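Predict structure. Chain length: 111.
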Amino acid sequence: MADKKPPEDALNDLRSRVAKARGEGVQNSKPPETAASLAFRFGGEFGAAIIVGALLGYGADIFLHSQPWGLVIGLVLGFAAGVVNVVRVAQSYSQANPSDPNAPSIPDDDD
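Prediction complete.
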């Protein structure tokens, strides 16, 4: 009976065994995104920003009774936010997946 561990030690032991079985603590590098998934992400970011801008502009039109102007301004701001989001995603992808400096360059038309 003296060999029995206190409940806290048994719980910590169980947690460490579960973490070891799950492979936690091991750094798994996720594979780079495919071109299709990156294109869908660009489209989703851009489309969502335009839709949200349009909805907010339409809502402003309803409350302010300024019929076409809220929607127009919302679309323009949504377009700008969409461009910013796409640039941000492209920059984060470029930082996460740098190009290979030893890769052969593509010849130009003048070469």
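Summary: The chain has a mean pLDDT of 84.
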